Amino acid sequence: MMVKTWFLCLPFFYYLFLINDQKQYKIHGFAQGTDYTIMYYATDSVVTKTSIDSLLGKIDQSMSLYQKNSLITQFNSAEHEIETDLFLNDVLKRSFEINKDTKGIFDITVAPLVQAWGFGPTENKIVPSDQQTKSILTCIGMKNLKLNKGKLTKTKPCVQIDLNGIAQGYSVDLIADYLTKKGIKSYVAELGGEIRILGPKPDGTPMKIGIEGPDQNGFPVIRHIATLNTGAITTSGNYRKYHQNGNKKFSHLIDTKTGYPIENEMISVTVYAKNAITADGYDNALMGMHLTEALSFVAKRKDLEAYFVYHKKDGSVADTLSSGFKKLIKN
Q1: pLDDT above 90 covers what percent of the chain?
Q2: Annotated binding residues for Mg(2+)
Q3: What is the main EC category here (predicted)?
Q4: Which residues fall in the annotated binding site?
Q5: Based on CB atoms within 10 Å of each CB, which residue in 123, 139, 242, 251 is the most buried?
């Protein structure tokens, strides 16, 4: 009888031994014009920097505007259409969905405007004239795109796409999928500030993620700490990436309806969602809304939460959180 009891308990002790034997591994690298950090727990280094770089390299060959032979570059140079790959097809499908849901605020055909305002792959420091901007607008709008059976078609040769507002989130999801396939059950994957989490840690404690935003002087600080065990957190903001022309600041976020950089009270938006492609796509769209509109938008979507940093009417910096995001904050 005693032998039988010991035999039944053995798997439990063995399980505890495996948890305690897990080590923390970290990988740092550079990809997609930014850096990445992956932290995971495992009994061995089952994921290497080489494997991650290989994965990100394949993604770049599909969607990087800085790769001369990438599929996205081929499409932007094409007269009519190209055949997509799995990566490009996945991101395009989600882009069409978010474009429809945001009533056109999220729009990947923004590429010519991004370039005109000096934020594209080719250096440009000249502010476009009103006439130039108006001319470019004829090439803008996802109504000018069609995705069907692995082919992406444009209605006009001047239509070009920019996936920077969603592709990094998708890349983080692919990294997360790769980690999961390797049997890793506890990790934080980050690329350019876009994060995907799976927890808890082997000791049972949850993951903690610092939520950044500007202070009253515009300097980046950690404003909150989020505690969670699953999902994705991404941030879009205008306090880091902008052009200065005299006293005028031009945000890299462009309104595809007007053709001009977005000017509203928003400073940054941090989004929580189940996956990073969703969070990444919506954080840009929410930056294009006014605060009350953005809060209402998030409240109507059960799988979306957000944290907003914004300018009050007197110019001071304030913040607010959706009800679901408040539950992630422990400080």
Answers
A1: 78
A2: 165, 280
A3: transferase
A4: 165, 280
A5: 251
